[in-house]
Amino acid sequence: MTSQGSSEPRASPYFWYRLMGRDEEGYDVYELFIGPQHPASGHMRIIVRLDGDIIVDAEPDIGYVHRTMEKLAEGREYIKNIPLFERATIIDAANITWGYVRAVEQLLGLEAPPRAEYLRTLLAEINRIASHLYGFGIAGIMLNHSTMFMWAFGDREVWVQLAEDLTGARLTHSYIIPGGVRRNLPQDFREKALKAIRYMEKRLQDYERIFVKNPVIIARYVDVGVIKADEAKRLGIVGPNLRAAGVRYDARIAEKYGAYPELEFEIPVREEGDAMARLLVRIEEIRQSMSIIKQILDKIPDGPIFHEKYYRMLPPKLKEFVESTGRLKLPGAFIRLKPEPGEAVARVEMGHGEVFYHIVSDGSIKPYRVRVITPAFRNVVLYRYLTRGARFMDLPAIYGSIDYFPPEGDR
Amino acid sequence: MAILDKVKEALEPLGAKVEEVRPGYITASISVENLKKAAQLLFNLGFDHVVSVEGVDWIKDNEIEVAYHAASYEPELHGVIVKLSTRVPRDKPELETLIDVWPSALYPERETWEMLGVVFKGHPELKRLLLPPDYQGPPPLRKDYKVPEEGFIVDLTRKQ
Amino acid sequence: MAEDVYKPGNLLTSLKRHAAAIATGLRYLLSTKRMTVRYPEFLIDLGEGYRGMIRWRRERCISCGLCAQICPAAAMKMYKLPGEKKMFPGINYQRCIFCGFCVDVCPAFALEHTPVHDLSYEELDEMIYIPERFDTEWVSPALKEGARPVKVVFDEEVGLRHEPK
Amino acid sequence: MTTGTIGRIVDFVLSPHIFAPLIYPGLLAATLVLLTLIWAERKMTAKVQLRYGPLYVLKPLGGAIQLIADAIKFMFQEPIMPRNADKWVFALAPVAMMAFTIIPFAFIPAAPGFVGVDVEYSLPLVLSLSALIPPLILATSWAANNKFTLLGGVREAFMMVAYEVSLFIAAFAVASYYGTLSLSKIVEAQSVPGIILNPIAAGVFFVTMLMTASKLPYDIVEGEQEIVAGPFTEYSGILYMLVMGASYMELYVLSLVFVELFLGGWKPVIPALASIHPAFEGISLFIKAYLVLLFAVFLRSVYARYRLDQALEIGWKKLFPLALLSVIWSLALLLVAGGA
Fold first, then answer.
1. Is this prediction's ipTM beyond 0.90?
2. Is residue D245 part of a domain?
3. Who has greater pLDDT, D89 or C83?
4. What does the DSSP 8-state code read for residue A335?
5. Domain A69-379 classification at class level
6. In chain C, which residues have their Cβ closer than 8 Å to the Cβ of B152?
């Protein structure tokens, strides 16, 4: 047992108190290492310091699944980085690659045809639902509600199946490429998607009965881990965590990319800022995403799915194949995309929040520098902020409610 | 564009070079001394958080560019990113931390210290974040840290 | 939706919620819905378009090497074999991420995806397919052992239904 | 060997002093409950969660002997003794825990007059014996010398004081109505099931029963998501099986008491059955207790876990006053009905 007296000088653990304008107080703390070998830590460690049952300080120690993506990206051609960045958030692959592709398209001066933009939006929304359901399941099991965990993961399968029908892969779609998308809409996709939506609407009511309105969940979530709008802004929080704190910010309306300007949807915002508000915002976002999918299926325009500049390069035989199967063939020139020197930034709203890419090109076939800031990396600071003063048993509740995805934070 | 003019008006007296490279993407490069002042001015304009803090190693110029991408949650500044950047020498990359202005720079600054060896003076916890605590090598995102690459041809005639 | 979770509940609303949760649980306890596909006995038929194991056809290959150049994981390589003038692609399934770029870039339709995805290996070296081994038909081990293929059908009531083919 | 000897052996085994603690409702039945209940729990949870649950061990019966397979696995698993542990306490506490869950069977009547040791105070005796387990859990948590086990032990200590009081008071509320502390006499006197006479006591007893056995929503002591497995974090192999089994055994003991206090004990739902053969009375008790157990473990698929302070609040601020209220209710019933 480690018990640190107040006399022991420690610089970092209590710095938060200084930042929050507090005096450095003497705490007699009990130090716990939650993770990386722990049933509920994920691929990370949280160093928790307890004063009795109260958390004095929880320090997220991330990096256990760091894959040096930014460095690896510097050594690869532009197109090869798509599957690489996809692996940061494998559960939300469409959105995380879309940010990268948007930045590359800006560098190349390309614009995807309208149909491709609609298809990207479609997959992005399917991924958003799947990502929220994943978060839901984790939130459930963090409170030991195994039914919510199994249900959410089971229902996520419906959306994963839908994505598979569209792209040919369950999770790692690599669907969005500079200049367009890789596959056209399958024949019977509309019926399938509408059935999935109707099913999900029914299930959300059961979720409500067994989870959201369950008195145990209300007890565990209401007024737990509260963050208010001004603090969320100061700390640069993104995604549903931000919107649950009362800030109406969503990269989909801020950046106006894809087909979003042509679609009608609401950005759910709640004022409470607690764990329950984050949960409710996610549920409402699932509903909004389903409404977006319906609109896309109604509005999707006909036309090419790939930019003319590269489609032209394909020999007639391959063009014929693309027309008949709806599966794109890539021209050989696509391997060595060569943008002008310069830089570009792009932001895309993922399920977890906003992802940011900054690409610096020196005019060669490989990017000079790719900077990626994922929503999880921006939200990691919440561990420190939300857990301060919470009870120890609130830690998993808070962890589940902020929907932190360690591989995404570590990149 | 109104925002560009505002940023120009605020930062050009400090000697910043402000331009809009793409719609909604404004870059402003400034000297190290004026960085904090410029950050405060940007904050006052409404850029309330940084999306990213990063370093770019310009090995040919023997300099590291440290860039802060500031953005805002306010509806009138949606879709605008200002890159506030400065260049520091590669052999002594030091600048003052901006977490007093933007607390959201806390973790990205720590990561930039770790990955490029840029020292942010006044940062309360410059310690390993993503790399293992016992990592010894040079800062990995510098250009002189090479990642071995392999070709795409395997010659089986030469083996054995 | 669940706006009233923030209202201070009294004993009655609390009991009602407990009852609703337990009743929902009991309803599912008594229903016959199942999500699981019992894999070694049943195998989901993935059909056309699934990005599974990659089939290479030697007779179509023009040895252009585009597949090896586009491979993001450096799994596909061009192999120079003794006694062969041309180079042919081989694949290392330890690395392959099934992105399908090689299939998409192949101008001669020499590479194509199959729906087979459930292979396992005893040794790492077996996962490297030099061109000689690469040109073979993939067979799902479960199907070989007599698994019954099932088709995935979307359903409003149970989400996904698995119908025997 | 003569038939006389065999007969004497059979008589000996069938005599309540041996049969009750060792066979039914004691050790053998308890083992059976343990094996089937955990299987049933997993099966029911799986059903609610749209899965199959254990299936492949004895497939025609839906994997019914899965737990035997698990037990064999635990038996052959290496029991790891932490280097810094207090070895004697660490190894013996689970054994003692199991023993204290089995001893109460000697005092629980399984049928009219069929009890191992017939004492006048069987109700408080059984409850006090099962109240000896929390101190043993504390002992394991201290002996393992691990931060997580210690936290689990502290939680157990907090929980124990919160639920034991209400558990005892709710049981005594019933006893005070019948004017006896003997379980057999309480069952005999029950013409109307206790749950109808005193629903408050029944509710309090059931909830505290869940707390005692740390079942959801009160599995705070073992809170996997915070403290790995609470006091049992360091256990492995056969010792782990013992500590895990002990909580189910405790639940079984308490559900037997619950049935005898509130559900008419061994009296069959159809009274005529009892006249066919006295064994039906024992079976009836078992079935009732098993149904109570099934409901208790079914709650796992409905609930999440309460926070420690919330559970303590429930224990002290809700269950305790309710338990007192149930005593008053019993006394009021006595005044109105003039006693049973």
1. no
2. yes
3. D89
4. G
5. mainly alpha
6. 65, 68-69, 71, 74, 76-78
